[in-house]
Amino acid sequence: MTDVNGPDRAHVSGPDRATGDTGRPAPATPPTGGGGRKARWAAHREHRRVELIGAAIQAVLEYGPDVDMDQVASAAGVTKPVLYRYFADKAQLWLAVGEHLASVVIDAVTPAIEKVREERDVIEAAIDAYLGVLETHPRLYRFVMRQSEFSGVHQMIVATSQQVSAGLARVIGDRLRSLGLDAGPAEPWAYGLVGFVQAVGDWWVSHGQPIRRAALTDYLTTLLWSGIDGVRRTADLPRTFTDAVGGTR
Prior knowledge:
By secondary structure, the protein is an all-alpha fold.
């Protein structure tokens, strides 16, 4: 679980569930003497690894997107060789930083869309939760997106988008079925919504958040959900769908 304290000041503590066993090199000479000792060593190693990821995040916030391993080592109070005991190279550490941000996004968006019951509110909640992460962590977000040249980071970004889209599709599909409608559009709508909001989020952060988050959330929700009426006319969906989910707003 990740713990984020204040705008763009991420502190990582506890088991790093976002990174899993990605790039976790085994110690050169692991201690022996039974499962208990090995378990303690593994826990110690994981705790130390999470601390170093936290130091990398702080280095990103302090030095910007061009941060290097020397600066990360300085922030962690260790030498570079110590970093390389836990991360094979810079790309692997940057991936761990990206996975931390991905876990923050998932932890923000998933409960936001699960707790609402009105269809339009699902879209609004997802948009607001995502923009909330960008608003709180703009420098970390810019850094991670800049590292998408690394294949692992790019794949992580894609996987996060897919996870959010799948969750949103499930909720939208449930709402459609509850109205007695075909749930087929749920998945393409969800993926389209996520991609659209990501693109606008990139613009919003890169331009210094020129629009208030609440206003941008309302703009995007209105634009995306009002478009359902056009889909209805094209797909010949029953009028009750748009009346139920968008016509009253």
